[in-house]
Amino acid sequence: MEKNQEKKESNKKVYIPLILVVVLILGGVVKWYIDYSRYITTDDAHVESENVSVSPKIQGRISAEFAQEGDSVKQGQLLVTLDSTDLLAQKGQAEAGKVQAEAAIAQAEAKYQFDQTNNKVLEIALTKAQDDFNRAKSQFKGDVITKEQFDHAKKTLETAQAQYDAAKSQINVSASQVKSAEAASKTAKAQVNVLETQLNNTKLYAPCDGIVAKRWLLRGDIAQPGQSIYTILNDSKLWVSIFLEETKLENVHNGQAALFTLDTYPDETFTGKIFTIGSSTAATFSLIPANNASGNFTKVTQRVQIKISIDGTKEGKKLSDYHIFSGMSAVVKIIR
Question: Which structural domains are found in the chain, ordered by start?
Answer without folding.
Answer: 85-200 (1.10.287.620)
